[in-house]
Write a structure and sequence with these properties.
The complex is a heterodimer of chains A (507) and B (152). Chain A has 21 helices and two strands. With 507 residues, chain A is an all-alpha fold. Chain A has one domain. In chain A, a hairpin with a 6-residue loop joins strand 1 and strand 2. Chain A starts with a helix and ends in an 11-residue tail after the last helix. Chain B is mainly α and 152 residues long. Chain B folds into two domains: 59 residues; 64 residues, no CATH class. Chain B contains six helices and no strands. Classes of the chains: A mainly alpha (507), B mainly alpha (152). Chains A and B meet through helix 8, helix 9, helix 17, helix 18 and helix 19 of A and helix 2, helix 3, helix 4, helix 5 and helix 6 of B.
Chain lengths: 507, 152
């Protein structure tokens, strides 16, 4: 408790350094921007900006990249509420009641409540991280290679099966990601693997090559000529429209608190990030409401609760990433990758060995969220006008950023060509109904998984029982098996009675 | 419903199984070893086997794609322009410098959308080129000639 406070004070001193403060601001600003713009995803934006951080100090780099992630959540709600465009998955459910509110002239109030929900949700998520992350890390200190291995197994399984889409496809994407991470020289033997004679591949594939191909180029291929222009439907909105009335706040506050709790619980399970949290929050709110028929016609609870849960889950998402080094989703995998590029080993030691990064990040969450609220209130008019920038001007510019970003990662033109191939491959995967995000999870964790697996079996002289002989490891293995069984039961039940879930709801 | 949509999961499973088989074939040449002394090929072969298995199950369970979702035919004009833009970037950056590379990439990329005029594409690419050179050459100092042989 006390050390937490000391750490936090230290964190603020780091985050308030002008240099770091500036990058935190850049991060949340860019995040807010891409959140507003339809057709720009968080994953592709972070990938595009990742190469820019190579020359930055690691603290500043992480503050900025993290800022994009939570900043985008503020922007995403604007798009959903004003235009009924679910351009960012966690905010898809906000459309259901947010847009009817806009149609009845209460869009400003919906946005105001969203901001209130955001700041409450985020604040809770951050506090949860302050207390939980060091505690989890202190347990994880005792982990040997066996525990790390089985924990990674659990994390990868959860990350690939609980997220959207079919579980079996998710797992195959994860395996594919691990396979891609093996490309290059094997550190244990010095053999080249899957390089097919290209010297450029002997250092392995770059993270940005894979992520910009799969989430940049593939996304452009999918959206070109397909994203409808939005310009004509722009709503006029000013500063004063945002202020909710006292009665609105009174109705919205209990749902906000419920949403916050749901979000923070969801964030602790890897793979159930903000998207799932917001759907659960909405469903809960509708179920306990005395007037469920109001939902879908502009019920303020239907905006408040999912938004609060999204923001609290987004902050909570950082807990397993920072305390265990196990990312819960693809965005976190990218952030971990960014740390690794700077030579920082993620894992339970991070909090102790890199207090600047851990506590600086937490302090920057506070600062960033406050900046976001301050930024959004006066600038809402600008964001609304930005919504009318057509996609046909956005993607060519982004295309260039992809090219130069991939090249700058290690001054290698070969990688730019490889990115194009990954883009085409990613597009094929999307067409075949795959969700490529788990590839990144596997790609980032792959090398550590193989290394720890080898080390475990070297220690046990080739006996696989080592994974169930140790109690903590056995627990993770058991949890993985349970998770798989649950998925199989669910799949079989679905096969018997096909329930038609509108897939677009999860897009 | 197109043929791809009807048998989507069969194609998907087939692709995954194929990749897995490739990993096994290639991984075997690296030396598999045993559990206590793993060779470089051990992990690839295990992963490959997993992919073959999953691909097989996927194809066997195969449900068709939901109506109106995925499996649209690609937009050829857009796809071609995007691919050409990236290739042009590589060629121009290697031979002419960063400025022409940015211009060419954005210009060709922009033409992928139907209805974008040459003038719009030119204006956009000039704007991005100025911004890009400013950011990458002057602020971030990416070591790359702006115009080969003229401006470094």
């Amino acid at each position: 408790m006390e050390s937490g406070l000391v750490g936090l004070i230290h964190g603020f001193s780091v985050a308030l350094e002008p240099h770091n403060l500036m990058w935190c601001f850049v991060g949340v600003f860019v995040g807010n921007l891409v959140g507003v713009l339809p057709g720009m995803g968080v994953l592709s934006s972070i990938s595009i900006l990742l190469p820019l951080t190579f020359s930055m100090q690691p603290v500043a780099a992480l503050l900025m990249l993290a800022g994009i992630y939570y900043g985008a959540q503020y922007g995403g709600a604007i798009c959903s509420i004003l235009l009924n465009l679910p351009c960012h998955p966690p905010h898809a459910v906000t459309c259901l009641d947010g847009y009817p509110m806009t149609k009845s002239g209460r869009g400003g109030v919906a946005l105001g409540i969203t901001m209130l929900a955001a700041i409450i949700g985020a604040a809770f998520g951050i506090v949860q991280m302050i207390f939980l992350a060091p505690y989890i890390a202190s347990i994880a200190f005792k982990f040997g290679p066996q525990e790390i291995c089985s924990l990674m197994l659990l994390g990868l399984l959860a990350g690939s099966t609980l997220a959207k889409g079919s579980a079996i496809k998710g797992i195959s994407m994860t395996l594919l990601g691990i396979l891609l991470s093996l490309v290059g020289t094997d550190v244990n033997t010095g053999n080249d693997r899957f390089t097919f004679g290209f010297i450029e591949l002997s250092d392995g594939l770059e993270l940005v090559t894979v992520s910009l191909g799969l989430f940049g180029i593939a996304e452009f291929l999918k959206s070109v000529n397909a994203v409808a222009p939005t310009g004509k439907r722009t709503v006029r909105l000013g500063f004063r429209d945002l202020r909710p009335q006292r009665s609105d706040i009174k109705t919205a506050l209990p749902p906000i608190i419920r949403g916050t709790i749901i979000g923070s619980l969801c964030s602790l399970i890897p793979g159930t990030g903000p998207t799932i949290a917001s759907f659960i929050a909405y469903a809960t709110e509708k179920k306990i409401s005395k007037t469920p028929e109001r939902f879908g016609h502009g019920a303020i609870e239907g905006v408040a609760s999912p938004e609060a849960s999204t923001h609290s889950a987004v902050q909570g998402d950082f807990i397993p990433t920072m305390s265990l080094g196990i990312p819960g989703d693809a965005v976190m995998a990218l952030l971990l990758g960014a740390l690794m590029i700077h030579g920082i080993q993620p894992g339970p030691r991070l909090i102790v060995e890199q207090p600047d990064i851990f506590w600086g990040l937490i302090a920057s969450f506070w600062i960033g969220n406050i900046i976001l609220v301050v930024l959004n209130v006066p600038m809402i008019g600008l964001w609304v006008r930005l919504l009318s920038v057509p996609y046909r001007f956005l993607y060519p510019a982004a295309l260039f950023f992809v090219c130069i970003g991939v090249f700058a990662a290690r001054n290698e033109m070969f990688d730019v060509g490889a990115t194009l191939l990954f883009g085409a491959f990613g597009y094929l995967l999307l067409q075949l109904g795959f969700e490529p995000a788990p590839i990144l999870l596997g790609f980032v964790l792959g090398p550590r998984l193989e290394e720890n697996f080898r080390r475990s079996l070297l220690l046990s002289r080739g006996s696989l029982e080592t994974f169930i002989d140790r109690p903590i490891s056995a627990f993770f293995v058991a949890a993985s098996v349970l998770l798989l069984l649950a998925q199989m039961v669910a799949a079989l039940r679905k096969a018997k009675a096909p329930i038609r879930v509108p897939e677009t709801a999860f897009d | 419903m197109s043929r791809l949509a009807k048998h989507r999961d069969v194609f998907a499973g087939g692709l995954i199984a194929l990749i897995g088989a490739g990993a096994i074939a290639e991984g075997r040449t690296y030396g598999i070893g045993g559990l206590s002394d793993m060779g470089s090929g051990f992990f690839p072969v295990v992963l490959g086997a997993g992919l073959v298995l999953l691909g097989g199950v996927m194809a066997a369970m195969g449900t068709p794609a939901p109506e109106g979702h995925a499996a649209t035919t690609p937009d050829w004009r857009g796809a071609l322009a995007i691919a050409a833009a990236v290739v042009l970037f590589i060629v121009l950056a290697d031979n002419a410098g960063l400025l022409p590379a940015i211009f060419g990439c954005v210009f060709v990329g922009a033409l992928g959308t139907r209805g974008t005029t040459l003038k719009e594409a030119a204006l956009l690419s000039i704007g991005i080129a100025i911004f890009g050179i400013g950011l990458f050459s002057f602020v971030l100092k990416v070591p790359f000639p702006i115009l080969r042989g003229v401006l470094h």
